[in-house]
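Model: You mentioned two targets. I'll fold them one after the other.
Researcher: Yes, keep them separate.
Model: Target one:
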Amino acid sequence: MKIDDIYTFSKIEDYFNFINFDCKVFDGFSIGKLEDSAINLPKVMPPYRKRFFKIMLILGGKIDMKNNSEEKHLKQNMLFFSGEGHIQSWESIKPLSGYIIYFTSDFYSVVHKKKKLQSGFPFFTQNASMSIKITSEETLHLKNTFENIIQLSKKNLINKNDIFRSYLNIILLESYNFYEQKNGTSSVTQDSDTRILNQFNELIELQYNTNKENVLKSVKEFANSIAIHPTHLNYVVKNLTGKTALQTIHNRRLLEAKSLLLQTSKTISEIAYDLHFDNPTHFIRFVKKKTGITPLQLRNT
């Protein structure tokens, strides 16, 4: 399915069909080996958006990956993370080996109802670095966990999904530790203000995950949806992030613009209307005000 000319996959199964990957999906969870997917995997993947999460442990091979506006050269001893709603594309340089996990937020939340993936794990946020380099020892440690899950997937157990969730949580928590050590992130506390911020951020993401017509644009519209006063929303966001609510909305809009400019061949006008600007001139002014250059110059940098 295409939304705004971007391939959009709501289900893991639909994505597998598109890339010709023969891998079993267990009620919102799947694990496979990268070398198995590489057999039929497209060498060049066009831009797509997915509504599930992905973690890769890369043991070998090379791939140029674009995730939103970030581009990375992925290779041996790297962890790659991709959150829900991210725009991705890639070009395979040398077939990858290692492991890959796909899972939905619904699969994770069956047990972890109060912990949100985007707020609990910084590598799933839209502006986070999508990969980290880990040591050979850390790679071997995670490899053993992934291999245990692979073996589990071949067994006929009535509580298999529950065990999958336990292993998944271990991988997420250990990845969080590696990510924090290498990037200096801090833990998230779940007080009332943080819950408001999480609701706000989740609501922002919803504006980019569907082809809905009535998108939210102003701080007042977002505040009304959360059922709080716009002034209070702005206070909470500014206090926790250092940015105003409007800056947060604009930053996410700019990130989406960069992703479309760098990963698609859509015209400036098409991107402007996709992002619900009244006309292309307003879009050009918005980008230039935020970056100092025009959308066309940004595309050509």
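Model: Target two:
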Amino acid sequence: MRMLRLWIVILSFLTVGDVMAQERYQVGVCDWMVLKRQKLGEFDLARQLGCDGVELDMGSLGKREMFDNKLRDPKEAAHFKHTADSLGIRVGAVAMSGFYAQDLSKKDTYMRLVEDCFDTMDKMGDVKVAFLPLGGSGNDWPTDKAKRAIVVKRLHEIGEAAKARGKRVGLDTPFDAKENLRLLKEIKSEGIAIFYKFQTAIENGVDICEDLQKLGKKNICAIHASNTDGVWLRNDSALNVPAIKQTLDKMGWSGWLFVERSRNVKMVRNVKMNYGNNVRYLKEIFNSYPEPEVALNDKGRDPDYVKTIIGRAQKATDELGITWTVMGQNVTNVIANRYFQLNDIYAERDSLKKEGGEKKQIAEAQCDSKLYRSHFGFDADLQRYLKPHEVERVKDVMTYNVVKVTYDAQCDMIPSLKEEEKAQILLWLKEARELAVDAESSKKKHEVFGKYKGRINNYLAKRGYDLTKEREEWYKRVKARGGQL
């Protein structure tokens, strides 16, 4: 009864449109494209990206007779399924991406490969859609009558096997809607459909909305909702995603949208930034994007100031490559809230000073007390989402990377530093960072480091280093290698 009441409360916050959108569309990523092909970590990554699920690949094929499929092992498959379930991530489709490079008309083990795929789909939770690209069959099969006949015959067999097991195999073809309908008519199997691909429609120069409507909802089993690599989906002038969503709504289509590409070529290897951004955009358009756990404390604050602070906070999540992930949104809000909190503490101090008298006398002490008590709370909030070394990177960004710059400079200036001396220098710089991260301005942050640099210089002088001489020799070395200080 208590659980029933809880669900009633939760549902009361959702509009009918929200619920229908969440039921109609699910957003995921292709595990082989996010560098997690049949790796257990794909489910946690999908969760971080804000996905509903993944398109899980069957493994590479190459010259093998069968896919390199570790999920053939029941124990391994059970482990994968348990992990996915525990993280709330579904397997929306299983892909046979090996056929991007294998000719279906020549791969005589095709039915064994397909049955292997179907078995994996069952193990991963009765998955209904499989992905089969025809790119490996070459450019001649659409026009070579003999070869096309072989491909069609084999696809018919595959389709009938899929139908018998309650599944559909979605084809990735080079065709527009007209030619896809022609192909489906030749195959004559309800177990075969089209795994629609935005990129293909763009390359064919057809309007995606018109193409989708011509193809019809019953012939589309899933969608690869991305273009070729270049820019993120939200910045792609070749795609009108809101219009596509309206078209699919009108058609009454429902199913999975998987991001395959649309990576920013300037950071093509940054998985979290690329796929986090694209997933978030699709979720914004097709569903209500999940609210962050950490609320932004922006009530009553100037919008321009809030925008500036969010931009400052995102410099840290950019550094970690998580800005466009669900986790990144939470971390952004944690950092922004810390900036807001610091601003409030210092504003209160300044206000007390202006009042004069006894309040002026206690202003600094009260400020220091609040800074001390709140400092460790900031650490704890970050540690909910980040590992210790990532928390350090956040603090480095908030303090202009002075720790690294200063430490590297000291080691370069005095190559003969002993390991215990390097450790002491780094320890003091990190101690300075703990104070500087709470300072009220850039100037104050640098003043904190300045005091600790003085301590480091005194320490080194007592250890017998002639800092003036070391610095002069350092300048010469830097100049000789074409650098400057």
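Researcher: Noted. Anything on target two?
Model: The chain has a mean pLDDT of 93.
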